[in-house]
UniProtKB/TrEMBL annotation:
Designated name of the protein: AsnC family transcriptional regulator
Keyword Transcription annotated: yes
UniProt keyword annotations, A-Z: DNA-binding, Transcription, Transcription regulation
Lineage: Bacteria, Pseudomonadati, Pseudomonadota, Alphaproteobacteria, Hyphomicrobiales
Keyword DNA-binding found: yes
Residues annotated as domain HTH asnC-type: 19-79
InterPro entries (alphabetical): AsnC-type_HTH_dom, Dimeric_a/b-barrel, PF0864-like_C, Tscrpt_reg_AsnC-like, Tscrpt_reg_AsnC/Lrp_C, WH-like_DNA-bd_sf, WH_DNA-bd_sf
Domain of life: Bacteria
Gene source species: Ancylobacter moscoviensis
Length: 322
């Protein structure tokens, strides 16, 4: 059992460890293909297989990275998803409130941010009743929380956790999975490098079937197997954009267009004050400002864009909240 939060432990990906050039190069390769053999990684980077294996093991054991199968959480049983914007009492540090919220099982993403909200939270719940419980019984009573604005998710339209690797990257788009694919994605969501033979044994199917189904899901962009990490750990500039779509424009058309932008890592179609939440990750603040100014504010289909700049981030994976 992991230590409790009372012992100072908050589950999730760490951002407090210094990474050297070799670590960054390894992570970049694993963000392209999380299952690439260590021998091949060594060949690409001029390292021995032993060095690669030891380095990757250290990154995993220190929670700098996790190598997972990424898919739409709804396909894994998280049927009630919402973004929540919180205002807080200035007398209570927002970072303290965020750390307490991050300890709640159903929460995978907690951002201390600028703008109208002090903290933004993503909740992945298994039912509307559980979602309501988390909001009313677990977040609401936390000391320092003043108010909440809730944005129910209609579609987790696009996810792309790759931001270190060079070149174009294809993210995961929301689409239904067959029952077998859903079970396979669930298994790989905890360990993307799990041997296919082991996955086959767990599911009671052949290794050949596992390989074929994984290949098909990757090709259809229903699944991505890669190393994920906290982008703030490598000095990236990150922001949520809350977007209101102009009258006459279709939300899904705008979402599809934005998903093709290389700086966009997440597109969340929702209800409430905003129609879309879009996460933007850039190398630095200058690039972030340029991306927002040129690619979002100039789009006539977007009536309003509101910026929520990341000051801190607690990032958990599904196995931390399941």
């Amino acid at each position: 059992m992991p230590p409790s939060q009372k012992d100072g432990y908050v589950p999730g990906l760490t951002r407090g460890i210094e990474l050297d050039a070799t670590d960054r190069a390894l992570i970049a390769e694993l963000q392209v293909d999380g299952r690439v053999p260590f021998v091949e990684l060594g060949r690409r980077l001029g390292l021995s297989e032993k060095t690669v294996r030891n380095r990757v093991s250290a990154l995993l054991s220190s929670d700098v990275i996790r190598i997972i199968g990424l898919t739409d959480p709804r396909m894994l049983g998280f049927e009630a998803i919402a973004m929540v914007g919180l205002t807080t009492d200035p007398a209570v540090p927002a970072s303290q409130i965020a750390a307490e919220i991050a300890g709640i099982r159903d929460i995978d993403y907690v951002v201390v941010t600028t703008g109208r909200y002090s903290i933004m939270v993503e909740i992945l719940a298994t039912s509307p009743e559980r979602l309501r419980h988390v909001i009313e019984r677990q977040i609401g009573p936390i000391a320092g929380v003043r108010s909440m604005e809730i944005f129910p998710c209609f579609s987790l339209f696009y996810q792309k956790a790759r931001f270190l690797a060079e070149g174009p990257a294809s993210g995961v788009r929301s689409s239904p999975l067959s029952e077998l694919d859903r079970r396979l994605a669930m298994v790989l969501s905890t360990d993307g490098r799990m041997p296919f033979r082991v996955a086959a044994d767990r599911l009671g199917i052949s290794e050949t079937q596992v390989r074929a189904r994984v290949s098909a899901m990757l090709e259809a962009r229903q699944l991505s197997i890669l190393a994920i990490m906290n982008p703030l750990a490598v000095g990236r500039s990150v922001a949520w954009l809350g977007l209101k779509i102009a009258s006459g424009a279709r939300c899904e058309d705008v979402a599809s267009h934005l998903a093709d932008d290389p700086s966009v890592s997440y597109v969340f179609i929702c209800g409430g004050r905003f129609d879309l939440f879009v996460e933007v990750i850039c190398d630095n603040d200058s690039q972030l400002y340029s991306a927002i100014d040129k690619r979002f504010r100039s789009d006539r289909r977007i009536a309003n864009a509101e910026l929520f700049y990341y000051l801190d981030l607690h990032y958990k994976i599904l196995s931390d909240i399941d």
